[in-house]
Structure formats: C-alpha cells, structure tokens
Model the fold of this input.
Amino acid sequence: MAEKIALITGANRGIGFETARQLGKAGVHVLVGARTADSGLKAIEKLAAEGIEAELLALEVNDAASREAAAKWIDQRHGRLDILVNNAGVASGAFAGPTQVDLAASIPEHELRRIFETNFFSLVEITQAVLPLLRKSEAGRIVNLASILGSLTYHATPGSPVYDAKTFAYDASKTAVNAFTIHLAYELRGTRIKVNSAHPGWVKTDMGGAAAPMDVTEGAKTSVALALLGEDGPTGGFFHLGEPLPW
Ligand SMILES: NC(=O)c1ccc[n+]([C@@H]2O[C@H](COP(=O)([O-])OP(=O)(O)OC[C@H]3O[C@@H](n4cnc5c(N)ncnc54)[C@H](OP(=O)(O)O)[C@@H]3O)[C@@H](O)[C@H]2O)c1
Done:
C-alpha cells in the first residue's frame, strides 16, 4: 500500500497540530481536522513551510453532518483510512495544576454535558463514522487522547500524581474515553486494527496552561508512537511515552 493516511481531529493547534507535524515528517499523509477553515488553512500553511503536504478536512466533531461529510470525503478521495487520532478535546479552562478542583458536588449539568459532548460522545461517533474506512486499511490504528486525569486507580489512591487534581467533568470524560478504548479494542480483536489510549503528559498548550512542564514536541510523542505501532504492538492499552498507565 502507498503512504499511510492519518486523520487527526483538532489538528489546527496544540498537541494535535504537533502530532500532524510529526506524522507528516514521518512520511504519513496527514488530514488536518479543523472546525474553522481559517485556523485549518493556517495549519496547512505552517506544515507546507516545513515541506509537509497536508490536506485540510473540515471537521466539527460535535456535528453529525460534519462527521458524515468528513467520512464521505475521505472515502471518495482516499478509499481508506490508516490512522485516526482522536485528539480534539475541551476542558473547563486552562489547567491550573495539581491543586485545581472542579467540584463533582456542584458542577452545573450544562458544563458536564458540554465536556462530555466533545471529549466522549463525539469521539465515539467520529470513530464509528470512519471505522469502515479503517477496516479497509492493512494496519488500522486508533489513538484516543485520554489523560492521566482519567485514571480511576490514581484518583482513588492518596499520594498518586493526580490525587489532588480533581477536575470532575474532564476527568470523568477521559475515564469514559478509556472505557471506549477497552471495549472497542476487544470488539476489534482479531482484526488488523489496534486501539489505544494516550496520555500526552502535562503539556504547554492553551489547555495545558503556561505552568505545564512539557512542550508540544514531547507532548505529541505518545500519540505519534501509538499511531505508528507495528504489527507486534499492543491494543487496548493506556500509555504515556511507551509506559503503561493504570486505568
Ligand atoms: N495539554 C495537556 O496538558 C493535556 C494533558 C492530557 C490530555 N490532553 C488532551 O490532549 C488533547 C489535545 O489537547 P491540547 O492541549 O492540544 O488542547 P488545545 O490546545 O486546547 O487544542 C484543542 C484542539 O481541539 C480542537 N477542538 C475542540 N473542540 C472541537 C470540536 N468540537 N470540533 C473540532 N475540533 C475541536 C480545538 O479546535 P479550535 O481551535 O477550533 O478550538 C483545538 O484544535 C485533548 O484531547 C486533551 O484533553 C492534553
């Protein structure tokens, strides 16, 4: 088969853009998912300046018509998809660090639903929309951007790296992403598709905030490695820089 084709959602900025850049540098044909044409085109221009020929794919993950149109466009243009990086995500503002707390006892329902809409429901639905195209790949790879904040084991363990960082809506949405990873990987066992969850690290982006210790170059590495997994690579796992994380 020719070069691999990858769709990265929310690839116009942050970790998603850097994932597109690193995959492009690795010779993957990148489809830059962006919900506004302007931001997407700017990303395409930046990639082109580095010699990466990427294509813009209009994709508002929360819009069913947009998801269906994106899947149809990929089908008509490429006939298959090799890599899906479910990167688009939202939080309740920039992460302020391990002392930030959004209260489970009082978070407004609309905020809980807003976070789940993008981080969980749309992630499931875009995956379902392009799954027939991933099935046509010789080696389909699905990377779901979860977070260490989605680890129930860590949240339940005093002294763990996230024990005192309880941003309820975001954390629960990422726990749900991990459940999707486990279930989908199980359903796709015996196929050529691998499904894994990624924790990028605490990364300096609009979401990660200025206090984050990692830059995006490092922050995209987990997504890129899981996107390029070989046949002997894992499926149904949760990883950060090659190391497994507890669910
Ligand atoms: N940064 C961290 O420390 C960190 C840690 C753990 C996990 N993560 C996860 O890593 C992923 C990327 O995070 P980031 O730090 O790069 O975030 P970011 O800088 O805030 O970028 C988020 C990206 O998602 C896109 N997006 C949001 N809602 C969308 C929608 N409805 N449709 C399409 N695109 C949408 C944004 O597009 P617009 O520009 O149009 O808004 C943007 O491209 C997220 O899933 C996040 O939860 C990040």
Remarks:
- Helices lie at 14-25, 37-49, 64-78, 109-135, 152-155, 168-187, 216-219, 221-227.
- The mean pLDDT is 95.
